[in-house]
Amino acid sequence: MTKNYTENLFVGLCASDKNGGPTQMALQLADSLERKGGFDIDDIGKRYLNWHKRDGYDAGPTASRVFQLVSKGISFTKASEQVDYELAGRTAGCNPAHRATPLAMLDVSDKELIDITIQEAKLTHWHPLAADVSVATVLLCRKLWQGEDWHAAVANTRKGRLIETQRALEAHKMNELNGNGYAPNVLAAAMFFLSNSKSITEAIERSIDFAGPANYCPVLVGTIGAAKWSNN
């Protein structure tokens, strides 16, 4: 699964990520997984931090503030908690889901993958929904790549998720979508275009037209779509 999944993932990601940050962070994550032979949270954190120091303009305000604090010597855990406090709990953003899909290639159980994805998300985003939407995104990619059909993969991904995430994975109408960066809204919008398009190209194009310059949902359309249409 590893090589083909990663290649397809980055084809979809590069086609859908118009601002650059998600692709760069996903590359850092994928490289860490490959070089370390598995999940190494400390190495991943260091790679994100070093990338941000070099060229992290599209890291997003939450992650950027965390990286700023870590650069001053604070641990990722304490920095992530502090930023959540500073923002009055408003850290349920989509950055973790944007960057985390390389985790789907790990040779671990679904339970362990969930735990790993939560750890990765909390490097920068302390809110449980940021992690839960990231978990849903990673699990859905894994199940699709393993050959489950779309409806079965979605149904299985919904199991055990927070209610907001479960609702985001349900069918929606265009007029119900929201283009902001709140993770459940980003996932819901992505699911609409993935469910109502005939190809990854169509899904990405429609999502980009909807999202505008912020480009929140297209990134998930690209990564999940790469798994959904992997055999086309």
From TrEMBL:
Stated name of the protein: ADP-ribosylglycohydrolase
Organism annotation: hydrothermal vent metagenome
